[in-house]
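Extended Data, record Tetratricopeptide (TPR) repeat protein
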Amino acid sequence: MLMFSKWAKTRREWVVGNRRRLAVVRVTYVSLVCVLLAASVFAFLPRIQAHSDKSETQQTIADEAAVRKEYADKVSKTYNFAFGKGNISTPGNAAVQGDTFLEPDAFPTADYCGHCHKEAYHQWRQSLHSNSFRTPFYRTSVNILIRTKGIEFSRHCDSCHNPIAVLGGGLTQSSIVDRKFDQDGLTCTTCHSVQKLQSTLGNGGYVMGVPAVLVDENGTRIPGLVPDSEILAHLDRHSKAVMQTFYRTPEFCSACHKANLPNPLNDYKFIRAFTAYDEWQNSKFSQRNPLTFYQADFTSCQGCHMKRASNALPEPGAKNGTFASHRWAAGNTAVPFYYGFDEQLEKTVEFLKTGNYLNVDLFGIRKSNDDKLIAPLGSTAFTLAPGEVVQAMAVIQNKNIGHSLIPEVRDLYEAWVEFVVTDSNGKEIYHSGFIKPDGKLDERAHSFTNRPVNTDGVFVDNHKVWTIHSVAYDNSIQAGRSTLIRYEFRVPSDAKGTLTMTAKVNYRHLRQSYLNNVFGEDHVAYPIVELASRSRTLNLGENPVSAPDPKDNADWMRWNNLGISYLDQLQYSDAIQAFSQVVKLRPDYADGYTNIGLTNIEWEKYASARGGLEKALELNPNNARALYYLALVERRAGNSDAEVEDLKKVLAQYPQSRDARRELGISYYQQRKPQEAMEQFEALQAIDPDDLAAHYNLALLYRRAGMKEKAKEQSAKFVTKKIDPGAPTYSLDFLRKHPEISIESSPWHVHRDAPHAEAVVAGGEH
């Protein structure tokens, strides 16, 4: 009893002034406790309980609050409140309970947690979260921001990359904060101290609590460090302190895996940066969007990036012999390559090469002297002769990624199609998407990237995001969609035997020019990973029908993906022809008819759309996707009540459908039902706080209802978030200066580059 009375007395001292000494004290202390517990564990349990009483907890909280106030007062005296008094994280959105600074020493170190959670610590140490702040790739960009605009602007980035620095008040001129925590980036207790989420705004949309690793018997969080013995004696209370139900939701990830560039950062206006969360929410994996082309079981962000596996090291957090991965395997090969984290690099490459994320289909060919589409290849007989000019059609399907290819900072990553044609001797006839001798990607390659530009019509290099005013083009493939890429080459007049076409999707993190900016041009080559590929052999002469490859989609799906590609490239007639092939092969497939209806709607042939949609509903009367599009047809036909009923049926099945909420709000607005319209637009904002239609319509509705302040707020948000009508001129200026890639801004284009004559480095894994 004497030992635990002593601990109760000194715990407040640890909280107030001796946190740093715990690591030294713990080894001797825990050894002694373990001996005593082994001798008489049951005798001590009630005594342990006695020292977690309410008065003790209240005193600890009071002591913690006093320390925090003293620290906050000290920091506030010299802190640059550039964006308003009390705004400690702007231009980021990070918040903290109590709305004031939180001393960095309040966060237990990762080493402290790793004392017991060995597997979690081992995985975390090599992860991107652990290295979120210190890498030269991140530092290069953020240091330019600091030198250009000031350290206070880096709060925008570090609200996610280094929350302790932001909430500790370290990002100010002449900071008094000891930045020793920089090496740990996102530690265990940054994520596990988040107590609440803001709406899915991103840019650090969380509310941080004072870190705690234990709660008392009433569930009250106890700030500060505690001995391991206390945690081991109260594992349930430890779990309540460090876990929240929402940690397992995609909304938790949205706090940082969604970003925008706000006016305080760029002195311009709101610009969307990346929206991985929104892309997931609109994908088939969320089961929140009725308009996806395909369906799948629910899968969260954690379901892909935190897959459970057997733990090799002791891990109290494991369940039934498996542990949720804390290495968050995704697409970043650069960081583990740079630090020599071989295990993390191996796991990342393994993740990327799973083989089920993308589908590459060499779908068909056209001859220059014949408009006939020869497709699908393998299922259609044809002839090919020397000297003919051939247009090959490669369809890339984003099959099982819950977000776009590429997500997030597309201007830094490289994913592209490498297309090669060789003769029977292996001689190269055509090559697009090669790596040049200087390590840079062929400029004319079809890459899944974007090109942000500034007011001078110049590509925004080095990730200077505060200078972005427009995006010249964005060739990413959204989740569940496909893109068609056309390559044109001439069959040599002396060719004999066969030709082999190969299309690969390659990936590199990061692009070579950015690596050059970080390290200079003389640096080791960074890994290139092949994500997916497909080859087809063409005979010079007769090409009979062949057996399908097991890796290929069924022919009806191949046509469907082609139709999706045509639709996104605004080739409506071709899209309808492709979808017509789908229903010919699969007359029972309701979505095939819906796709025909959708194409007619986008083509503004509303009357023609009705037949396909009604056929889809004949096959599946509750098909929410067909009901949604039929509602749009009913609106054009003036059938307002039918329009509303269809949308209500959609929302009954998909209450978080952004599109259905938006359209039903418009329907009620047109019916002069302001209250009902207001409810729909408010519900839409709860799903997507950045929806322009919601801002615009709520500004009108609030004003008419006499809610002037709310109307003013919504109007201001609409003004800053709407597209600047002058911004496209910057894109046009950029495209004029770069004719070699200007065709990438056109939805429909053909790669007709002459065969590459220089020695090249073949794509694939390096």
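Summary. The chain has a mean pLDDT of 90.
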